[in-house]
Amino acid sequence: MKYLLTIISVIIVLSAAGCGNGQPDPVIDELAEDTEVTRELLFVDSIGVELGDSNYVLGSIEASSHTTDGNILILDRPACCVREYTNGGEFVRQYGRRGTGPGEIVNPLSMTRLTDGNIVILDMQTGGLHTFTPEGEWLGITAEIINEPILWITPAELNTYVGTHNSFAVEDGQMLVTAVVGKYESDSKEPIRTYWENTFPFDYVDFTVLINESYFANVFTSDREGNVFLAKRDTEEYQITGFDVNGEIFVEFGLDIPMAEKSEQEIIEEAQFWNTRARNMGANGQLNYLPDAFRWKIHSMGVDDQQRLWVRRGTEETPTLDVFDYEGNYLFTAELPGITGLSGLFWEVHVDEQGILAWSLDPLDGYQKLYILELAGQ
């Protein structure tokens, strides 16, 4: 969840994940109630305290991941670092710290663990992509990224990752924004492959256009073999496109689920939340984001160790994920029990090959925790 640092970084930081333009006819499954298989996600443990040891006090969780041996990584933006914990919640080490010196960070925007084992943290205020070894050694800034941050990064094959960014150009006196979802190597800011691209005029007074055309336009995930899944964040359509390591479309599929209209109160709360969050991230300029009257059908995605794609429904207040195989066959739906009401919409669920993690962007008890989950019966 990144935003702008100036009116221009507003655009930069607010980019989104991409939607493929495929050739195969998409398969749309109508999910009848009698065919849906629902399983529960169970709370196993949590990391985070309100007061006490600073290694366990979490300011704002911006991203999570796992190390190669299954330890948990948490990007804490206010603390300007990534912390590593065992799966039992014990603190192991820290990557980065607040400051402007070697290996120090001011405003981290995204993080992941690459398939080669290294941990990367993007902070454009200190020069770009900081790379650390699994043991915590700072390898330097491997890619200079100072004005067009690459966000929502997710690991692919070797030292590559998938991310999204905005760039700007002036043509005939009009500023244009180009939002891109692409694959990058950790030592370069130029994409080696582009999956989705959208160019549109920048409106200096309408923050909503910027967000909807870039940051909130799409969602994506990838696995460590280089497969990439992209979906449009749409209120009417639930459709996913899969690309192989060569960038070729290998599957398109979706579900037919009902649209979900927001209440007036939900729209007000959502607008207040995102505008406030943008300011807290350092955004300047006029922030007047106005949410759509309906919820997105797809909120986010992840891939587990069994080559199953987990797709979070944006229509449900309780975190609900539909699970598919790589051929697009629906397998089951997983729900996080006990999370109900509008507060459930502000939960994030991260799925990768090492496990399932979750946290609330707006925790009711006032401080953040990262929860370790597992699928019931697995």
Which CATH class applies here?
Mainly Beta
Query: How many helices in DSSP terms?
Result: 3
- Indicate how many domains the architecture comprises: 1
What CATH calls the topology is Neuraminidase
What's the CATH superfamily, by name?
Answer: TolB, C-terminal domain
Largest sheet: 8 strands, mixed
Shape: globular
What this model shows, in words?
With 378 residues, this protein is mainly β. The chain has one domain (7-375): TolB, C-terminal domain (Neuraminidase, 6 Propeller). The chain has helices at 7-13, 207-215, 264-280; strands at 27-30, 38-47, 61-66, 72-76, 81-85, 91-95, 97-98, 104-105, 110-113, 119-123, 128-132, 138-144, 151-155, 160-171, 174-185, 193-201, 218-222, 228-232, 239-243, 249-256, 298-303, 308-313, 320-325, 330-335, 347-352, 355-360, 370-375. The longest helix is centred in the C-terminal third of the chain and has 17 residues, at 264-280. Mean pLDDT is 87; it is low at 1-22.
